[in-house]
Amino acid sequence: SATYRVIATNTTTNCSATLTQVADITVNTFDAIIENGANVTICGTSGTLTAPSIAGASYQWQKDENNIGTDSNQLTVTAGGNYIVVITVGGCTKPSPASVVTLTTPPVSSVAITSDATNNTACAGQAINFTATPANGGTNPTYQWRINGGDVAGANQSTFTSTSLTSGDAVSVVMTADLTCATPVTSNDIVVTINALPTVTFTGVNATVDGNNQVTIDEGNSVTINLTGGASYTWTPNTGISSLSTDGSEAVLAPTSTITYVVTATSSEGCVSNGSDTLQVVVRPNTDIFIPS
Predict the structure, then answer these.
(1) 94: helix, coil or strand?
(2) Are strands 58-63 and 81-89 parallel, antiparallel or unpaired?
(3) How far is CA 262 from CA 52, 85, 214, 239, 281, in A?
(4) 42-98 pLDDT, tens digit each
(5) How far apart are CA 91 and CA 93, in angstroms?
(6) What is the per-residue pLDDT for 213?
(7) Other Cβ atoms closer than 10 A to 240
(8) Which residues pair with 22 in a beta bridge?
(9) Cβ count within 10 A of residue 20
(10) Which of the chain's ends, N or C, has fewer CB atoms near its CB within 10 Å?
């Protein structure tokens, strides 16, 4: 409350009187706005406009200067246009700034992915390249690649390459079109088959290959080695190889000095070993002493 004084003066007689009165004055302060903003895009056929919820307030919504809606701080809109809300609190009335509402039909988009691996099959460690092809994706769609439903960190381009997939992994991508009201869409799954690289096992026919892939022979002798683990094999170097089967799985070795062979195996699926399979043939020198008679 406050004390107010009014002085009344008769302009004819120039007489004046003073009236003093104590009065309670209430000042209503509130914001009349539409919280959605000045420009509102509604995706679909309807949406909601919202004004501040004020205790004791009444609301009158207007579209294109025509009263609509109910006495509520929210309004469901089904058509575009210029909307305001007039809020009244304790006899004080304020209109909001206008909000221009546009209703937009969400676009229909899709995305499909392919891989460069034949029948989506590769060898362990081999790179597989995946490519996403969008339909109605707009100028610059965004992507998120996934493996078995989980996002791959940093995989946000239209292409994706992996060398670490395992057999049965499912690769897909989520695309969001560069269009108003676009929602994310998910591609088809590509389930990959990953074939293991072959590992070579060395078996000596007339000598024993130890756990370190080493076999010992006497100078001037030979050893026959059988290989398993692949479908075909190549030997490097070819020094001291006296005979070799067509597929390389059996070799007769007769080197004149100690040598290490590197064997590369190829599986029936066409996968090639990593070159770490080696066999060392240790040649014991002939120490016989010849004494002429």
Answers:
(1) strand
(2) antiparallel
(3) 79, 84, 12, 12, 11
(4) 999 999 999 999 999 999 999 999 999 999 999 999 999 999 999 999 999 999 999
(5) 6
(6) 97
(7) 18
(8) 3
(9) 9
(10) C
